[in-house]
Amino acid sequence: MAKSREILVLGSTGQTGRIVADSLESEGHAVRRASRSSRSTPFDWFTQDTWRQAVEGVSRAYVVLPERVVDFGAFVDLLENCGVEHAVVLTARNPSVSGDGIAVGAEFAFAQSAVKSTFLQPSWFAQNFTTGMFAGQLQATGTLRLPAGTGSEPFIDYRDIAEVASSILSMDDPSPSGPLPLTGPRSYSFEEALRVLADVTGTDAGRFESISVLEWKSDATRMGIPESFVQSLTNLFVAISKGRDDYISNGVHEVLGREPRSLSDTFRDHSNLTS
Fold first, then answer.
1. Contact 125, 16 (CB under 8 A)
2. What is the pLDDT of residue 214?
3. Residue 69 pLDDT > 70
4. How far apart are the C-alpha atoms of 38 and 214, rounded to whole Å?
5. Which residues contact 59 (CB under 8 A, 6 or more apart)?
6. CA nearest neighbour of 22 among 179, 169, 177
7. For 52, 67, 238, 270, which has the most beta carbons within 10 A of its beta carbon?
8. DSSP characters for the chain?
9. pLDDT tens per residue across span 11-49
10. pLDDT of res. 99
């Protein structure tokens, strides 16, 4: 693609945004890094006065959604009015399942606009076991307690998500548009995932305990998870327990021409970085 206009990266200090921005810059693209903490391009979903400065003059955008519902229609209208050609939006797998309205609301607003959009719909991040919400509970108690039963999930390395996003944003004619489900190469139950982590690290990774929804909600409150997230996370775990997430999507291969990183690859890379 022509590299004269900047590409906007929202959430540029976050897990995927940082990698997207770095990758695009390494390919010679001008990148506008935006986040709440950015001095050059501050962006806050909940302060609309920050939106225009971030959006004006960019050709494409990587969009990481907020933790609460905002006026997505107003944001998309701004993108359209400012001439943004394509947006890659990080939403969620089966976006209506959480019930919080964030991902499904954003997808609806973008789909109704003239901005060509790709909706990245990933499974749960594999890094949750090493640096995310699962890791915190395991480190604190040695036990991962979730209402997920024996259900399986094809955990994905968030680096694969970021590489898909940067690849699409770099294309002369970005494709695909619409939903793009992304998963790892195979599904694991939480118990199996912890065994993989133990095998890779050579340590006791902890144990998994399937609990009831009521127990999970009580645990989540004690862990300080915001009340607005608890029900959404509950819905996602219940979906796993019922087997609704136990399927593989080929989105990573479709865009990158390679298989996604395996769970053991993700754990091994993390172990090498921290050793």
1. no
2. 96
3. yes
4. 40
5. 1, 2, 5, 6, 7, 83, 84, 85, 86
6. 169
7. 270
8. ---SSEEEEETTTSHHHHHHHHHHHHTT--EEEEBTT-SSSB--TT-GGGHHHHHTTEEEEEEEPPSS---HHHHHHHHHHTT--EEEEE--SSTTSS-SSHHHHHHHHHHTSSSEEEEEEE--BGGGGTTSHHHHHHHHHSEEEETTTT-EE--B-HHHHHHHHHHHHHSSS----EEEEE--SS-EEHHHHHHHHHHHHTS---EEEE--HHHHHHHHHHTT--HHHHHHHHHHHHHHHTTTT----BHHHHHHSSPPPPHHHHHHHHHHHH-
9. 999 999 999 999 999 999 999 999 999 999 999 999 999
10. 86
Average pLDDT rounded to a whole number, residues 239-251:
95
Residue pair 154/245 in contact (Cβ under 8 Å)? The answer is yes
pLDDT value of position 275: 65
- Kindly report the pTM of this predicted structure: 0.95
**Residue 198, token pair as written in the block:** 């133990």
State how far the Cα of 92 lies from the Cα of 123, in Å rounded to an integer.
7
**Confidence check: pLDDT of 4 > 60:** no
At 272 the pLDDT is 86
What is the CA angle 99-64-80, rounded to 5? 100
Q: Which tokens hold the place of 176? A: 């695909």
Residue identified by tokens 């996604």 is 260
Q: Which tens digits make up the pLDDT trace of 157-207? A: 999 999 999 999 999 988 878 999 999 999 999 999 999 999 999 999 999
116-122/178-182 β-pairing: parallel
Q: What is the dihedral of CA 141, 145, 151, 155, to 10 degrees?
A: -50
